[in-house]
Amino acid sequence: MIETRHLVKHFGLKPVLRGVDFQVERGEFVALLGPNGAGKTTLLRILASLARPNMGSVRVAGYDLPRQAASVRSMLGVVSHLPLLYGDLTAEENLRFYGRMYGVPHLERRVGEVLELVGLRAQRRELVRAFSRGMQQRLSIGRAILHDPELMLLDEPYTGLDQDAALMLDDLLRQVVTRGRTVVMTSHDLSRAASLAPRIDILSRGVISASVRSAEIDPLQLPTLYHSVTHA
Q1: What are the DSSP calls for 80-109, one per residue?
Q2: CATH number for the domain that contains residue 195
Q3: Looking at the domain assignment, is residue 29 inside a domain?
Q4: Beta partners for residue 3, in sequence order
Q5: Disulfide-capable partner of 7 in 20, 24, 86, 201 (CB 3.0 to 4.6 Å)?
Q6: Model-level pTM?
Q7: Is 99 part of any domain?
Q8: What number of helices (H) and strands (E) belong to the chain?
């Protein structure tokens, strides 16, 4: 589903990605860990065709980015640091707007299903500008899953979520993977990453410095591995 080779990205004279080789198979769930400034968000933005690399190649579902970005965007569900919502629309109007963009069949039924999944059915007619940060994050997750995308790119999706909402997202991600969808999620939560994702990659100093299977490592050892890799 994803293949990058020798991916390089710099902002001015500041290098962020220094030659990233990153492969993800269809149906795989990969948690991408790393310290602040490691390039996690930049990598996801490139995969979402929201940023261009300076060097290297990127292929998503067989399409070359950024040249074939239009073919990729329809199969993506993205949760980023920005909610990408319209504050002057209600929750259901936001989902309806995006659903029409993606040509979602049986749209009204699907909007109701998604609002129920993210726990916002009771707030469906409230303006998003009045939502708390956590409620906006719930709706952003709903927007990302609305069209049942083949690939989900989630950049710190638990930010702003309370415990109930975090458990909702845990269940939702497990359902997404069960249906054969592909997920790449950045996180600072080592224990949650290990409990959800079968594979953990660590991005440090602009390269993938380690890749481990969650089943092959004691969760208690993960912080030690993470520290050793990111501080080497």
Answers
A1: -SS----TTSBHHHHHHHHHHHHT-SSHHH
A2: 3.40.50.300
A3: yes
A4: 23, 59
A5: 20
A6: 0.94
A7: no
A8: 8, 10
The residue segments making up the domain with residue 232 are 1-75+152-161+184-232
- Is the Cβ–Cβ distance between 36 and 64 less than 8 Å? no
| SS3 (DSSP) at 74 | coil
In a domain, 205, yes or no: yes
Q: Name the DSSP class of 211.
A: E
How many domains does the structure of the chain reveal? 1
Mapped onto helix, strand or coil, the DSSP state of residue 186 is strand
Kindly state the tokens that stand for 86.
């319209």
Place of tokens 């490139």: 46
* Count of other CB atoms within 10 angstroms of residue 74: 12
Q: E strands along the chain, which residues?
A: 2-11, 14-24, 29-33, 55-60, 63-65, 76-79, 151-155, 182-187, 199-204, 207-213
Q: Is 124 part of a structural domain of the chain?
A: no
Instruction: Calculate ∠ Cα 47-53-54, nearest 5°.
Output: 170
pLDDT in single tens digits along all 232 residues of the chain:
999 999 999 999 899 999 999 999 999 999 999 999 899 999 999 999 999 999 999 999 999 999 999 999 999 999 998 889 999 999 999 999 999 999 999 999 999 999 999 999 999 999 999 999 999 999 999 999 999 999 999 999 999 899 999 999 999 999 999 999 999 999 988 999 999 999 999 999 999 999 999 988 887 788 888 888 887 6
